[in-house]
Amino acid sequence: MDFADPGGDLVTDTDRRPALLRRGSWPETARVGDVLRQETVGGALLLAAAVAALVWANSPWADAYFRVRDAQVGPSSLHLHLPLGGWAADGLLAVFFFVAGLELKREFVAGDLRDPRRAAVPVAAAVGGVVTPAVLYALVTLGTPGAARGWAIPTATDIAFALAALAVIGRFLPAALRTFLLTLAVVDDLIAIVIIAVFYTAHLSPLPLLGALASLAVFAVLVQRRVRAWWLLLPLAVLTWALVHASGVHATVAGVLLGFAVPVVRGRGDGPGLAEHFEHRFRPLSAGVAVPLFAFASAGVAVGGAAGLGDALADPVALGVVAGLVVGKPAGIMAATWLVGRFTRAEPGEGLAWIDLFGLALLGGIGFTVSLLLGELAFGGASAADGHVKIAVLTGSLTATALAAVVLRARNRVHRRVHEAETRDLDHDGVPDVYQVEDR
Fold first, then answer.
1. C-alpha span between 87 and 95 (Å, rounded)
2. How far apart are CA 207 and CA 213, in angstroms?
3. Predicted TM-score of the model (pTM)
4. Can you name the residues that pair with 10 across neighbouring β-strands?
5. What is the distance between the alpha carbons of residues 194 and 117, in angstroms, rounded to a whole number?
6. How far apart are the first and last CA of the chain?
7. Where are the domains of the chain?
8. Which fold has domain 2-200+250-439?
9. Percentages (nearest 5) of helix, strand, coil residues in the chain
10. Which helix (H) or strand (E) holds 10?
């Protein structure tokens, strides 16, 4: 006899062991699907932008690329006379982190992270996926002068890049795995934000920071009152960003704080909550414009042929980054997930196996956007070490993608069967039948 567990999984009397990964409710699954579709498109644009930057930076017109990237614009009096590459890293990525802040708050208030039992697996996996590559990087670069500054580079997962790869190699991935990947990436973003704020703040100016907190407080009061007037909120957001930048804290942190200020729960009246409203407006801008332009500004590095590539990857810093992404990241994710399963006596889930989690863990080794940002923060955007880091991040991410493709492709037939069961809608009511088992 079959029955449905509280998480929506169909299990049998002979297998009542708890599942590490569960689908969740239909509304949550549908929302995750919408988010993943937008991020997949953004990932394709990100890849196209990165390839364009690499081709241009290694073409006879490479000087033009570097002149454009390094051209400085903006008012010096406001400490905003920055190169265009700096505007991409400090300005455009603030939009990306604003959307990440909205997603983080939604997950903690109304999503999977609200339930400690459901949050345990992705949170543990994200922590393991940060600690292990950092330790492995430190071991590989041990004794290399100045290398310790880059310990955080291989700790990030690029969800847009990972989903773009997933759209090609794992189109039938079950809902539980997709939800796990997205939730892990959300927690990963939170850890990255903390790392940037705590470890990559070179100096701190108290007055601009206090001004930023004041403007953030005004912004928070307005959004808590459900104010949506862009002409009022946007200047406050820009002011907060500018003051955080002037304070010495990396400006992207302002985006996260602004996202955290937006309420998730709906107020009185009809219509979506303000966080959902802002996410709907800004996610396409983040995925389709901000992140691809940052990739275009950051991924352009002169490889210099096979010899130049070999020299770059012979640098212990580059080797540490590649090892952290390709080996450390999946090892940390798998070890933490296995430990949670060991202590809770849980299995992966209906129709799933540990090899599926390994495939996702390999995808977690795709570190691109935040890894490139951390490389610039650690070594400076114009340094030789940063160039080697860029080559290492690209090499590690592509290697992780190829390995994930092998693993997930081998399970494609199983995933297709689970996907068909999860999308079957015999009564044509718009809700797959598997999510209505409890009602029958």
1. 12
2. 10
3. 0.86
4. 4
5. 24
6. 14
7. 2-200+250-439
8. Na+/H+ antiporter like fold (1.20.1530)
9. 70, 5, 25
10. strand 10-12
